[in-house]
Write a structure and sequence with these properties.
The protein has 853 residues and is mainly beta. Helices cover 11% and strands 36% of the residues. A hairpin with a 2-residue loop joins strand 43 and strand 44.
Length: 853
């Protein structure tokens, strides 16, 4: 029987400079796939280098053998037994090479050369074999790769009756039996069988099935069915008879959904209007780098789902195949994007140098692989493509790419779009007029006019918002816009915005609400990503609603309040944390999906405010109050005045204990499962220390391994793959990976001056077949600290105290200001004093004379 075998085990890796033509003299080390070699050094995330991957293996007997790669970044060449079997340029599309003629009896050697030359992207790409590898074994009869095309069309909407057309590309040497079966779990919904001869396989074999009253797929109810394709042939029988045997079986998850994209009414899914509440997502996974892990991605999807997200845009490239499968399963509509550039480059070594020759192969790979997914909404052939703006050549390429997409998806399982930041100009509008599904990047102000001028266009926000923010960082006052400051952070209070984006999360939400004809929007971004650290030159972006460590920022809850329903999932969120200078005026903000909220300080009400669309455009309630120790509390009420949700923030003291909380109690000993352990601090009273910066040391023993530490801080260049790191505003994430052995996993976390915290998790045994083709050897190791010292107690807070009357006048020309450090025994006691304006800019209207510290 034809087989597709996971082939991630037994690989070795070595790295060289760009001048190496062969790995001669290099020292190879065992490596786990998927693998990203750049994430190993945060100080050199864009290193010019060549990665060499080597594997020795004995190949099972087969008529044909193929080596399939889900993704290699980028410019890869594959050799088998020193014979070149193929190359692939783009780093995001899947590909395969037939290696049959290069194989020999006994041991074989695969060598994969991967060239990373920077800059090749506007973000962190990672480098290496960063997705799964497969070995395909075929006989003389087989189903062509991605050769099953599922196309459902509704026959009778009222009766919910569907006609399913399945086209299958086959390679046959003999007569065969082809069966298509649609299952709902173990129940057969529909089945058809055809007898096919080799002469009938010059084109796709078409079969049809009728499905009565299926449950429809939607983000709220992602009902899936299974399409099982079986190819059977009759083996020779000496008695003249034969029993058909299955030579290949393929199972795909499918769904039934009716999509209408209407220029006036937006998205109509299964007869109901639905606004896209989407996020754009790059492909890295924080401390794991670009190396793909389905468990990590599933966890991210859960966090987005809880935020109210129902759609994803794969910025700006084809996603992992598992991305689409999870979107099917968990209920996300997907705008699947292919390219960030066409013929005109954005960086010196990007894909533009290969685009004219390689785009047809990449589009074919992309569309054929993903065309059957019920989550698929749109094919996006480009993002912010300068070619579409520069001249008429952009229109020629648009037509060409559209033709390539339609060759792979002739039944139009998804429509075609472009996401553009050039929609104010004529040439880009001509390209939009070709696709008709017009994606606007930061072009909300154009919607109404373009809707009037182009009434046949379907308009949506392919990229919006771009508000920058650092988790737990608050630059007061709220009304003062502060994009950049000395700390290298952006305020999550709601007053850090870039010139081209929305002024606040609320502004992005309201702009979408005010355009009912729009499909909806995809905010930039769901998660922070490595690279593109606007407005600084630090390590990772500030755009996300969750940081790279997957901790929620306050803006996460603003979108959650707008995108969820208090009648089913009531919520209220209160920020900032509650630990500031005595008497300092603090902007306290409350967001909720409920129509009314109240704020209390130490049990005393400070008033109520109305929120939401029913009460105008206020989405976040704000109070200005002087800081006083104690407790602030937010209460949310429904339209009857009934309390339905509360949130509390309390003042806190220095950390006295380490707290560990994992996302689950155990993992599977399959080499790929993950535990995410949140490390926080509590004071003596049990309150979370929400601005803690303690350095901790993490040790993992037993049936687990430490794979990464991440705090989400863009300014922190300590190694992701080290054993020690600071908390950032009270949080640090430790990623614990499974080995191939079951048993207890001990996690021990220590910090200077605090009792060590220990916890035990369990790695559960799995079936032997679950670990075939898996390697699980790599783990984090001790690395030098780049931020601070290994044996340190960092400062978490500088508290300023001064005279009650804080105003300098001609008569009162001096004020005394006292600085207190917390913890008092911090390793760092020097304080630098400056006089700045309320925007953080140095000013000379006053001077500071310091004493002490």
């Amino acid at each position: 029987m034809n087989q597709k075998l996971l082939f991630n085990d037994g690989w070795e890796f070595a790295k060289s400079g760009l001048d190496a033509s062969a790995p001669t003299g290099l020292k190879f080390q065992p490596v786990d796939l998927p693998h990203d070699w750049l994430i190993e050094d945060t100080s050199n995330l864009y290193e010019n280098s060549i990665g060499w991957y080597r594997k020795r293996f004995r190949c099972p007997a087969a008529d044909r053998v193929l080596l399939a790669f889900d993704g290699v970044y980028m410019n890869s060449t594959v050799y088998v037994n020193q014979q070149k079997v193929g190359e692939w340029k783009y780093g995001y599309s899947t590909f395969e090479h037939e290696i049959t003629t290069a194989l020999r009896t006994g041991e074989n050697e695969i060598l994969v050369k991967v060239v990373h030359q920077a800059p090749n992207s506007r973000w962190y790409s990672g480098a290496g074999i960063y997705r799964n590898v497969w070995l395909k074994l075929r006989g003389e009869n087989f189903i062509v790769t991605d050769g099953v095309y599922f196309s459902p069309r509704i026959l009778d909407s009222a009766a919910n009756r569907w006609l399913v057309t399945v086209q299958t590309e086959l390679h046959l040497a003999t007569k065969a039996e082809l069966t298509q079966t649609i299952y709902a779990e173990d129940h057969v919904v529909a089945r058809t069988t055809s007898i096919i001869t080799p002469a009938e396989t010059k084109g796709p074999v078409e079969q049809q099935l009728v499905v009565e009253n299926p449950q429809r797929w939607s983000p709220a109810n992602p009902q899936l069915y299974q399409l099982v394709t079986q190819l059977k042939v009759d083996p020779p029988d000496p008695d003249g008879g034969s029993t058909p045997v299955v030579v290949e079986g393929l199972t795909q998850q499918i769904g039934f959904r009716e999509i209408i994209l209407d220029p006036d009414h937006g998205l109509i899914l299964n007869g109901k209007r639905l606004k896209l509440q989407g996020t754009c997502e790059h492909h890295d996974l924080g401390a794991l780098g670009a190396a793909f892990n389905k468990v990590a991605l599933r966890r991210r999807f859960k966090l987005l789902k809880a935020m109210g997200v129902n759609a994803l845009r794969t910025a700006h490239n084809m996603p992992a195949v598992e991305f689409m499968a999870l979107a099917d399963e968990m209920g996300f509509l997907v705008v699947s994007e292919a390219f960030d550039m066409w013929e005109r480059a954005k960086t010196p070594y990007d894909y533009a140098r290969f685009f004219p020759e390689w785009a047809p192969r990449d589009v074919q790979s992309w569309v054929r692989r993903d065309r059957n997914h019920p989550s698929l909404l749109l094919w996006s052939i480009g993002n912010e493509i300068y070619d579409t703006h520069a001249d008429e050549r952009g229109q020629e390429i648009t037509k060409w790419l559209m033709e390539l997409v339609r060759q792979g998806d002739p039944q139009e399982n998804a429509a075609i779009t472009i996401g553009s930041n050039y929609m104010a100009w004529e040439n880009a509008q001509k390209c939009a007029d070709l696709v008709k599904i017009a994606g606007y990047n930061y072009g909300e102000k154009l919607y109404t006019k373009h809707h009037e001028v182009h009434p046949d266009w379907v308009i949506y926000g392919s990229e919006t918002s771009s508000v920058v923010q650092s988790r737990g960082v608050y630059h007061f006052p709220l009304e003062k816009s502060i994009l950049a400051d000395d700390d290298g952070q952006c305020s999550v209070l709601g007053n850090s915005s870039v010139s081209y984006g929305a002024k606040s999360p609320e502004a992005a939400i309201i702009a979408d609400w005010e355009t009912p004809f729009s499909l909806g929007q995809f905010i930039w971004t769901g998660f922070d990503y490595l690279g593109e650290p606007t407005p600084y030159h630090t390590k990772n972006s500030y755009f996300g609603q969750l940081d790279t460590a997957t901790f929620q920022k306050d803006s996460y809850y603003i979108y959650q309040a707008a995108w969820t329903d208090y009648k089913t999932s009531p919520m209220v969120h209160l920020f900032p944390y509650w630990d500031f200078n005595p008497g300092q005026i603090i902007d306290v903000r409350v967001c909720s999906n409920a129509p009314r909220v109240e704020l209390q300080l130490n049990g005393v009400t400070l008033g109520c405010q109305d929120l939401g669309r029913a009460h105008g455009v206020q989405l976040v309630a704000t109070w200005k109050i002087p800081y006083a120790k104690g407790e602030i509390k937010a209460l949310a009420y429904d339209e009857t005045g009934r309390e339905i949700a509360t949130a509390v923030r309390r003042s806190f003291e220095d950390a006295k204990r380490i707290c560990l909380r994992a996302d689950k109690a155990d993992l599977e000993a399959n080499g790929v499962d993950l535990l995410f352990v949140e490390i926080t601090m509590e004071d003596e009273a049990g309150n979370p220390v929400e601005n803690a910066t303690n350095r901790v040391h993490v040790e993992v023993t037993g049936a687990g391994r430490l794979l990464g530490l991440d705090n989400g801080d863009s300014t922190d260049y300590d190694q992701y793959k080290g054993l020690s790191r600071r908390l950032f505003n009270g949080k640090l994430m430790a990623i614990i990976g499974a080995t191939l052995e079951p048993g207890p996993i001990q996690v021990q976390v220590s910090s200077k001056g605090l009792p060590t915290a220990q916890v035990t998790y369990e790695a559960l045994p799995v079936a032997p077949e679950a670990v075939v083709g898996v390697s699980a050897q790599q783990q984090s190791s001790a690395r030098p600290c780049r931020l601070g010292m290994a044996d340190e107690i960092p400062v978490r807070k500088i508290e300023l105290r001064c005279d009650p009357d804080r105003i300098l006048t001609a008569e009162r020309r001096e004020l005394t200001v006292e600085a207190r450090l917390y913890p008092a025994d911090s390793s760092y006691q020097e304080v630098e004093w400056k006089v700045v304006s309320d925007g953080g800019i140095d000013t000379y209207i006053a001077q500071v004379e310091a004493s002490g510290h």
